[in-house]
Every structure is written in structure tokens, then in C-alpha cells.
Inverse folding.
């Protein structure tokens, strides 16, 4: 049954003022409408910002452990409803059910973690240069945050932003992707049920064009956290800079797996398949380049092709499915176009390359898992983010050549190396220019309690997830307190006795 999604503004569920809606479709079978999304405009955003501004002065003063208790209740509710929410992720976004459930699990993990942070939001207490004086640093909230999230992790990525923003004492306007509005609405319903006060979290549905930029640059917003394409992130960052707003962006990736000649090839292939085709390649951490040592290049390709051709493509709700659909027609066409580009560039198409145009799969956005070999490091398919089930295999002469290839892109999110040589792993760990490095494991699967983000065009501002050094830095600023209890005027840098 299709479900209506509404905006949540100041604790009230409301339709967008325009009254306009758009359907959210099941990408595995577009005859199924999952829900309708309200198409908001600037006036809806204005009311949400006003509600968040009004709620801020009291929310910031709620003791952080109390804020944590509410988030803990949200974690418990998410856990109780994990199965139902996981199925919804698969129906609305398309990823296979194990990954749909994992999407929800990541939100649960983040909720428990941030609930605990309510009792740990620590700063430093340090001695003063002067007697009878003390000094400390405190984390304080930034204010009202706009959180803008993509469709590929419809529950996890919102949770990565919402829970740390709230535990830190900020209030929020959440603008989810218009392709996964029902998942977003369920998450916010749960937060409301957990007891988040009115106005502390507001939900505004709509498209990026209509709502995203208007929200991010709204004068009532103090900070923005965005996950999506590098182009949009950079545009928002420029706009925010001119309004003096905080902004952090987590954007694209072109993530390599290096396979050395001493690697366990079966394991490396499993990693390539999981990283390349998991979530149908629609992760910013997807392994879209496999850089293979020339000594094992042909052997690796043989095993990879066999494993790829065994993958079952289909509706993610079926247990036997390995690879689900692309999210929408535009993404599907973009990926098909890259496959044509790869062929024209002279890469060798080893398997896949086509859309499914007959049978049940013709009702969804399905593309065969695709592998190109003999890809040159400079080709577009080796340089640009495809965000689909397309893997490019590139030959390398040795470790240093492999690392050069890995680094020769404008992105730097995640990278992996398969090797049994501890020295090679140490060199890779040191020299791979990415925010995340995996050793003997694929490029995907970051855990929520470590900072997540990348170098170069993969992101800007603070790291996502994690605690100190990550999300807490994104959502708090430092305040320093000097207290002089000497009863005299003491002058730092001058009074030396
Ligand atoms: C993303 O694709 O934007 O490491 C995030 C991973 C997931 C998060 C991916 N935990 O693949």
C-alpha cells in the first residue's frame, strides 16, 4: 500500500503548502508505488527553520545525558522495528534485504553510540599560567543545522547526521532524498515517538533543486551537513562560505582495491565482488577500480569473471538475489552511458554491460554486473564516479605503480589492499591518499564509531561518524572558559611572578 509522507514542522505533520506530491517508486518494479512525497517549497522551509530556531534555546540547555536518554529510546524503537524498516529500505531503495537490514542496523548502532556520548561530551581542563585561575574547554552546540541526505543509505546516513547533531544540542531541519521519503519519514516518526520535543527535529520533503539550496543558504541556518555528489557539495560549500555558515560534505569516491601477487586471490575476488556490486555499486565507498599486479592479472580475471557471472540479479526481497536494481531511470541511463564510454575508450568488456529488457526485471532498473579489463588509469571509466555495478580492472607493475594508479584520481574516500606481506600493507597504509584504508578487506563497510570521510574531492569540512575527530567536531564548536578567583587583576603573558 502506498503511504503518504508529510513534513514534520514544530511537532505537527503537515502536507507541503503547494499541495503537490510526487510518487516514490519501487526501483525493482516501478508498478509499485511505495509512497508519495510532499513537494515542499521555500515557505515550508521558512516555517521549519522558524520552528528549529524557536526550539533551540531550550534544547541546548537540556542536559546532554537527558538528550541521550531520548536517543537511546529511539535506538530501542529502531531495533524493535528493524525487520519492517529493513524491508522498507529494500522496497524503496532497491538494495538486497541483508543490506536493507544493515542500513537500519547502522542507524541503530549510531543511536546507541550517540546516546552514550551524552555522558562523555568532554573537553579539557588544563592549568592556568597564573595562580588562582582555571581554564577549560567545552563543546557547545552550533545552533540550527540543515541535514541533506542521499537515497543510497536511506536510514543510515540520516542517522549519522541526526543523532550526533541532536546529542550535541543542535536543532535540525532534515531534507532527505526525494527518492526515499518513506524511509526518512519512518525514522522521524520513531524519533518523535521517542520523545524529541516539538521543533527540535523538523522534516521537510522535496527535491534538491526546489528545497536543498534554499535550505542550506537560509539565513536562519547555522550549519549544513550534506552527503551527495561532489558537484552539489562544492556548490553548497561556496554558497555557505559567502554566508559564513559551517558546512561539511561527504561526496564522491573512485575507490580502488589493490591486489598484490601474494594475495589470496579468492579472497580478493570476494572483496571485489562485495565492494563493486554490493548495493549495486551505489555506495560512495564502492570498489569501482581493481588494480591488479601483473603477475596475477590473468588468474585474478578468470576467478572474477566466474564469480561475477554467478551473481543473481533481481528483486532484493528475494533471498537468492545478490544484486538489486539502480535507484531510478536517470541513474540507470547514466550507468549505461558509462558502459558505452568504456567500450569506446577501448576497455575490454568481459561480462555484463546490458540492461535487462525482458521478463520481470524489465519493470525495474536492472543492469548486468559489468566488468571491464585492460582499463587504462586515465580512461573516464577509471576516473569518474559511475555509482553503479561497473568494475574496471587495471594492471599494475608493482606496489608503487599500484599505489600511483590508486591515487591518480580526484577522489580519496576509501581504498583497499590484498596482500600477505606486512611491509607492503604498511607502505599502502602510509601512501594511499584516502580517508579510509582497508587491509585484506573490501572498500566498503566502515563502522560508525570511527571518523568517516575522504581527501580531495571526496569531502570537505569535518569527518562524518566517529566521535571526537568526527561527527562531534562537525556538530559542536569549542568554547573556552577562564575563571580567575584571585580577586585581583592578573595579566596573562605579563605577570610572571
Ligand atoms: C556511502 O556510501 O555514502 O562504508 C556511505 C560503507 C558504509 C557507508 C557508505 N558503512 O560502505
Amino acid at each position: 500500500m502506498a503511504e503518504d509522507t508529510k513534513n514534520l514542522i514544530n511537532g505537527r505533520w503537515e502536507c507541503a503548502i503547494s499541495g503537490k506530491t510526487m510518487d516514490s517508486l519501487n526501483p525493482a518494479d516501478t508498478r509499485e508505488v511505495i509512497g508519495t512525497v510532499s513537494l515542499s517549497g521555500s515557505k515550508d522551509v521558512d516555517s521549519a527553520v522558524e520552528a528549529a530556531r524557536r526550539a533551540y534555546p531550550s534544547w541546548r540547555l537540556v542536559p546532554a545525558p537527558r538528550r541521550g536518554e531520548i536517543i537511546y529510546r529511539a535506538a530501542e524503537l529502531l531495533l524493535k522495528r528493524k525487520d519492517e524498516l529493513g524491508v522498507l529500505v529494500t522496497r524503496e531503495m532497491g538494495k538486497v534485504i541483508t543490506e536493507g537490514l544493515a542500513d537500519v542496523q547502522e542507524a541503530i548502532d549510531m543511536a546507541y553510540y550517540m546516546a552514550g556520548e551524552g555522558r562523555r561530551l568532554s573537553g579539557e581542563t588544563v592549568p592556568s599560567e597564573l595562580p588562582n585561575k582555571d581554564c577549560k574547554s567545552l563543546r557547545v552546540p552550533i545552533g540550527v543545522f540543515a541535514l541533506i541526505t542521499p537515497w543510497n543509505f536511506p536510514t543510515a546516513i540520516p542517522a549519522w547526521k541526526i543523532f550526533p547533531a541532536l546529542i550535541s544540542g543542535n536543532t535540525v531541519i532534515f531534507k532527505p532524498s526525494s527518492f526515499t521519503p518513506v524511509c526518512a519519514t519512518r525514522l522521524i516518526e520513531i524519533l518523535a515517538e521517542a520523545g524529541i520535543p516539538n521543533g527540535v527535529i523538523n522534516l521537510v520533503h522535496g527535491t534538491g533543486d526546489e528545497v536543498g539550496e534554499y535550505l542550506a543558504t537560509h539565513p536562519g541556518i547555522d550549519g549544513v551537513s550534506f552527503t551527495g555528489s561532489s558537484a552539489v557539495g562544492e556548490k553548497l560549500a561556496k554558497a555557505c562560505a559567502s554566508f559564513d555558515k559551517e558546512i561539511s560534505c561527504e561526496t564522491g569516491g573512485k575507490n580502488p582495491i589493490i591486489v598484490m601477487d601474494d594475495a589470496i586471490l579468492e579472497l580478493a575476488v570476494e572483496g571485489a565482488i562485495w565492494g563493486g556490486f554490493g548495493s549495486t555499486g551505489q555506495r560512495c565507498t564502492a570498489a569501482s577500480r581493481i588494480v591488479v599486479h601483473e603477475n596475477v592479472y590473468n588468474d585474478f580475471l578468470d576467478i572474477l569473471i566466474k564469480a561475477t557471472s554467478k551473481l543473481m540479479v533481481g528483486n532484493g526481497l528475494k533471498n537468492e538475489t545478490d544484486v538489486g536494481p539502480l535507484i531510478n531511470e536517470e541513474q540507470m541511463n547514466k550507468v549505461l552511458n558509462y558502459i558505452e564510454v568504456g567500450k569506446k575508450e577501448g576497455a575490454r568488456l568481459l561480462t555484463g554491460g546490458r540492461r535487462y529488457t525482458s521478463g520481470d526485471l524489465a519493470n525495474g532498473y536492472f543492469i548486468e554486473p559489468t566488468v571491464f579489463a585492460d582499463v587504462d588509469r586515465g580512461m573516464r571509466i577509471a576516473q569518474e564516479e559511475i555509482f553503479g555495478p561497473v568494475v574496471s580492472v587495471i594492471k599494475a607493475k608493482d606496489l608503487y605503480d599500484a599505489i600511483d594508479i590508486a591515487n591518480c584520481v580526484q577522489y580519496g574516500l576509501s581504498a583497499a589492499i590484498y596482500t600477505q606481506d606486512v611491509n607492503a600493507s604498511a607502505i599502502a597504509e602510509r601512501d594511499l591518499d584516502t580517508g579510509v584504508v582497508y587491509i585484506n578487506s573490501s572498500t566498503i563497510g566502515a563502522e560508525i564509531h570511527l571518523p568517516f570521510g575522504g581527501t580531495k574531492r571526496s569531502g570537505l569540512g569535518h569527518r562524518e561518524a566517529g566521535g571526537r575527530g568526527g561527527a562531534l567536531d562537525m556538530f559542536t564548536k569549542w568554547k573556552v572558559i577562564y575563571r580567575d578567583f584571585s580577586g585581583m587583576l592578573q595579566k596573562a603573558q605579563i605577570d610572571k611572578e
In short: The chain is about 40% helix and 20% strand. The first strand starts at residue 3 and ends at 4.
